[in-house]
Amino acid sequence: MSFLKRIFAGGPKLDADALVHSTEIKQVAQLDLLMRFSGARPLHDPGEQQRWSRSLPQPYGETIKLFIKEGWLEMTPAGLYQATPALAPQLRAYQEKLEREKAEIMPQVRAALEKKETGEALTLRRAYEGRLALGQAEWTGPEPQLSHSALTRRIFFLEHWILDGLSKESKDWLKLYAAEEHLWGAAWQLPEAEIPEIVRTELARPDMPISEAVYWKAQQLGLYVDNQETWQRCKGGDHVRRIELVGPNDDYTCDSCRSTLGKEFLVARVPELPHRACTSPRGCRCRYEPVLESFDEQGA
Fold this sequence. Notes:
Layout: H1 2-8, H2 16-21, H3 25-35, H4 46-55, H5 60-70, E1 73-75, E2 81-83, H6 88-114, H7 118-130, H8 148-156, H9 168-184, H10 197-203, H11 210-235, E3 242-246, H12 255-258, E4 264-266, E5 287-291, H13 295-299
């Protein structure tokens, strides 16, 4: 009976206000998808459509048609899709809801990291993302591996020449900042007012704002533990014999880093990262990339 009713009623009807306040993932996913069309854009690629379909009440294509029927989504003259002004109040309310939830969870995760409880911090992150449409916020990184919290924890106990010349207070603060970014799989620059005076003094550079200088120093710490993890996994496995050095090749790439970009090395002979000779104001941004071989190559 409900099936026939749905047919003769012309399909499911949506209540935008109810979607804003819903806690059901499939309902939240519909509004979250509409958020992605706040600005004109093409439909998602097939792989992303399949991912959305797993979260939505109906397949991605049917959902798009329903949005258009409801007057919530329209096609532009350029063939792109954009949310209509009729939905602006609900999208604004949903965005404010997301910002409140983010503002609530970040201090909780930071408090766990201050105690070096990276496992607890990761549990909090997963619980937060588990309430979101795709199991991931727009601002967070990809699904973390099981070892992610242990890897983040290494940052707190890192002693490396990257930190040479810094006081213990600055090191401890910088490690917490780096660990927080690493735990979330995200990166952000802090307002200058949130950076302790001693850190501002010790990391000040004439060629960039202090927020940027602190950001890049923290990035080096996270990248270092990631590179070490990659090297250890390659060293202990039989399926990888070579490692490629990859990284950005832009105006901030120094000659030392550029000279090794794209080159492959045997695992036992790969240059240590970060490069000591790096002169980039952003620090060495090179990373290890395992070179996967076919079965034929492995038997050669």
